[in-house]
Amino acid sequence: MNKKTEQTIPQPIYRHDYRQPDYWIDKVELAVDLHDDVTIVRSILQIRRNKDTASEGQPLVLNGEKLTLKEIALNGQPLPESAYQVDREALIIFSVPDHFELSTVVAIKPHENTELVGLYQSNGNYCTQCEAESFRRITYFLDRPDVMATYSTTISADKARYPVLLSNGNRVATGELENNRHWVRWEDPFRKPSYLFALVAGQLVCHHGTFKTMSGREIRLEIWVEPQNIDKCEHALLSLQKAMQWDEQTFGLEYDLDVYMIVAVNDFNMGAMENKGLNVFNSKFVLCRPDTATDDDYEDIEAVIAHEYFHNWTGNRVTCRDWFQLTLKEGLTVYRDQRFTADMTDFALKRIRDVKKLRTLQFAEDQGPMAHPIRPESYIEMNNFYTITVYEKGAEVVRLYETLLGKEGFAKGLARYFEKHDGQAVTCDDFRVAMAEANQIDLTPLDRWYSQAGTPVCEVRGRYDAEQMTYTLQVTQSRAPTPAVQPAFMPCLIPIRVSLFDPKGQALPLQLADENVPIGEERLLSLSETQQQFIFVNIPQEPVLSFLRGFSAPVQVKMQRPREHLAFLMAHDNDSFNRWDAGQILAQELLLNLAQDWAAGRELKLDPLFIQSFGKILTDSRLNPSLKAMAMMLPDEKFLGQQIEPIDVDALYEARSFMTRVLARTFRRELLALYQQYHSTSPYSNSRSAIDARRLKNTVLRHFLTALQDEEVIALIGQQFQHADNMTDMQAALSCLMELEIPEREQALQQFYGRWQHDPLVLDKWFALQASSSLPKTLDRVLSLASHPDFNLRNPNRVRSLIWTFCSLNQVRFHSADGRAYKFLAELVLELDRLNPQLASRLVGAFNQWRRFDKLRRNLMESQLNTIIAQPNLSTDVYEIVSRSLN
Ligand code: PHE
Ligand code: ZN
To answer: Which residues form the Peptidase M1 alanyl aminopeptidase Ig-like fold domain (predicted)?
Structure first.
């Protein structure tokens, strides 16, 4: 991050400008001396000229930011000042030999570091965060992922205050020093880019275990946490063991070092970081106990632990040539963690959750000012491109390979990728080529998924011809409009899974016009042109179409169809994803109509067909309870907002509340029965069935019964809150109370605060719950919570729990027509930008959709964005987001 001054407008860098570095660094020896006032970093680099690019005598330009250079020597000889130059971003040595050793000594000040990149402190301990470009805040270096070196790191510090000293690789030596100091040396035998470097020092304790690899090696697994958290590590350890085993079984990938360490820190900008052999985690994705963390938290922890572990192969062993290739490691690793979670939990449930997230957040990003291809063409600040597009859409694109090649073909391709590229820094093209080679198939048509921004839209028309007994599917593709200018849309290769059902709900055998016999009851169609036709023959009666089953490609579907077809699919589709989706589409259609009716002052009425279909789901005893909960949930306001322009926040809120109330009243008896059936009186268990039960009964309570606001329901909520022996039930009850204007609400909040004020992760929930309430007074509550003694701008989790929850997830209250919330956010962003630009830039993204709102809100948001951009010394992070938004 660089500061934007009025004189310098930050300039983008372009993917096409990539060239190899002029020098390579093969070996790094670091000595890091941690002291209260200053940290001294000595580095010895073995450097050689890159014969492919650099002519002799080319200057050496090393990245370095916020470093104070103390000493510099080349091959042991101190350099005179005339031989080099230091500025805010670089150290330039004018003339160097072909091979040499460069030694530098720099001073840094981790205790002043509020940005949480480079070396910083969290709760008095030291830790590092180097991805993407922050190793340069630790020492001078060629800080780019294609420069791979081996690292040896010696850390020294006060023995009492920093008894634990960790870095990547293996601990090879330790020793004592004067003044109660000690040192530890680590060596990482694997070459790695600088962004995977890590160092941790502090008062930490370790929860450990082991893993026996498939080749029989025993790996030591260590979870390092602050002492008070030692009883919250077992789930993380189990998750790690499961992930290791899964990767061996699924892809034959084994861990390579002898020790795998995870450190949990409280102050972290992101979720977690895959540093080689030494992951640093946001404590939120490590620590849990049944009474402090919910079932969803447990699932998130398992997924993030697995994600970081999977990076050891997809990211670390094979890394990215440059940051434009980020999706190479992130899309692939998200795909891997999604499959892992599906195997650990339930395939359909996981798929539904992932697609929901993609459609709500990524589709919105694609339609806003930040629209970019999964492999961006340019950026000003790389940190702004750790996006839902690069990650989640990237994972969908990886899934396209699986869909086209099958699971086995995919595994073969992945094996080929490692065989060719282990130890290298490569590109998305290299991945595609490896996949193609292993399967002897041309995959160049997939390239457009990497180069084009925006969501493809498939328009579908099905026509039945009774005389010919044919069913003709006409499919076109185009792109959903994007405000940012994009090159003309070129058609993509879109794999589409389809089935046809007869009126009894039987899937029909499918035979295309040019085939002799039917081949299965589900077909994979390849749409590669702007417009294509698929003709199914021998179809005895008008069928019901199930399109894009399992969400076989990340596209929007537009299709006119009778509501009866949707209701039919809700009841009969044998693809669980599409069965769920049919309900969502139907609910969405009705909600959007209701919102229009509300805005026009018309009386609201709910289509009996939907009530009936909802009732069937409610009483379907074969449906897994988690899936049932998913199916009952109405599309959220934010998602609905994306389907209309301008977004009418009040109408959507009223429409959704109305639908909820009608369903709750109509099915009061059934809902109460479900609640009772699944409300366990036995003690907490984390078995799948116990989790499913909690999910269903809490959905019933929070999303339906609470709307009734009657005494019986209030009593149920109160009882659940008072007697819960786990955080899932406790939080669910409290979130019900957040919707009710009753004395118990404030009592419960106080009680919860009293019990958990010393546990930061639980206190985050307390802030988030209040911020997510749909009560009109929420805005005032949030404003006052922002000056609560426990609110703290320096802790990203706390900021996200209050500010992000409110500004991004609470559509109806954030977009209050008086514009107070906008002003609040803008001021907060500016204050935060001085402390932590990365976090500020995430938050300001809450304005990204501003053009989609009504004129009043549009103007209010625009004026806040203008205030922000007018600020001198804005970070490049915030500058990039806001300038794109205003362009
Ligand atoms: N590479 C991390 C992951 O997705 C995310 C991350 C990016 C963390 C940048 C910190 C900084 O696993
Ligand atoms: Zn990742």
So the answer is: 454-559
Is the link from the previous residue into 132 a cis peptide, with omega within 30 of 0? yes
Distance in angstroms (rounded) separating the CA atoms of residues 784 and 740: 19
Question: Cβ(681)–Cβ(694) under 8 Å?
Answer: no
Give the start-to-end residue ranges of the domains of the chain: 19-203, 321-451, 456-553
Q: Is 321-451 a domain of CATH 1.10.390.10?
A: yes
Give the CATH number of domain 19-203: 2.60.40.1730
φ, ψ (nearest 5 deg) of residue 444: -55, -30
307 touches ligand 1 (CB under 6 Å): yes
In this structure, which amino acid lies at residue 8? T
The catalytic residues are 308
* Length of the chain as a residue count: 887
Confidence check: pLDDT of 35 > 80: yes
Contact call for residues 132 and 382 (beta carbons, < 8 A): yes
- Cis preceding-peptide flag for 646 (omega within 30 of 0): yes
pLDDT digits (tens, 9 = 90+) for 548-589: 999 999 999 999 999 999 999 999 999 999 999 999 999 999
- 19-203 and 321-451 share one fold: no
How far, in Å, is the centroid of ligand 2 from the Cα of 281?
12
Predicted ipTM?
0.99
Output the CA–CA distances (angstroms, integers) from residue 860 to 206, 714, 826, 872, in the order listed.
51, 38, 11, 21
Ligand 1 centroid to residue 468 C-alpha, Å = 56
Q: For residue 611, which phi and psi values (nearest 5 degrees)?
A: -55, -40
What residue's CA is closest to ligand 1, atom 11?
A: 131
Site to substitute for ligand 1 among 133, 195, 270, 281, most atoms within 8 A of C-beta: 270
How many angstroms from the chain centroid is the CA of residue 382? 16
- Regarding the beta carbon of 637 and ligand 1, being less than 6 Å apart is answered no
> What is the rounded distance in angstroms from the CA atom of residue 139 to the CA atom of residue 137?
6
- The CB of 270 under 6 Å from ligand 1? The reply is yes
Question: CA end-to-end span of the chain, whole Å?
Answer: 22
- Ligand 1 close to Cβ of residue 390 (< 6 A): no
Does residue 104 contact residue 71 with C-beta atoms inside 8 Å? yes
Cα separation, 519 vs 510, in Å, equals 6
Q: Between 649-666 and 576-599, two packed helices, what is the crossing angle to 10 degrees?
A: 120
* DSSP secondary structure, 458-488, as one string: EEEEEEEETTTTEEEEEEEEEE---SS--PP
Write b or e for each residue in 383-405: b if 16 or more Cβ atoms lie within 10 A of its Cβ, otherwise e: bbbbbbbbbbbbbbbbbbbbbbb
Q: Is the pLDDT of residue 6 over 50?
A: no
Q: Look up the pTM and report it.
A: 0.98
Quote the CA–CA distance of 280 and 224 in Å, as a whole number. Answer: 9
What pLDDT is recorded for position 483? 75
Tokens representing residue 152 in the block:
């040896």
